[in-house]
Amino acid sequence: MSQSNERQKRILRMQRLRAKVAEWAEQNHLEQLQDGLRCWLGSRKPNQDNVQEALLFALVAAKPSGDSLLEMYRRGQSNLARFERETFAVWDEVVFSVFEMVTVTEGE
């Protein structure tokens, strides 16, 4: 199998895993998932790329208690496959920055 085919296969597996965790979050922590999506999208019009970014952000962003949806999912699963553990390790390294403008003062 070529490297390109192997890479595509991994990408598809990651997408399926992200969908699986998102489905779990939707069933168990819908409010936190929606808050994360809204936070990342802000007022931007959703398109395929920024919705995927927003979904990943919603899964990996810690809530005020410190637990991300991804961490809660991981803790609740007793038999994660090696690929899932490796993918979660990669997702743990994802860094996002979100800023919210709350006031504007002339000259500042």
Topology overview:
Layout: H1 3-28, H2 30-41, H3 48-60, H4 69-76, H5 82-92
Would you summarize the structure shown here?
The protein is mainly alpha-helical and 108 residues long.
Description:
- With 108 residues, the protein is mainly α.
- Helix content is 65%, strand content 0%.
- It has 5 helices and no strands.
- It has helices spanning 3-28, 30-41, 48-60, 69-76, 82-92.
- The radius of gyration is 16 Å and the shape is globular.
- The termini are far apart.
Mean pLDDT, all residues: 84
Helix content: 55-70%
What is the gyration radius calculated from CA atoms? 16 Å
Shape: globular
Which percent band covers the strand fraction?
under 5%
Along the chain, the helix and strand elements come as: HHHHH
Distance between the first and last residues' Cα: 57 Å
Keywords:
mainly alpha, 5 helices, globular
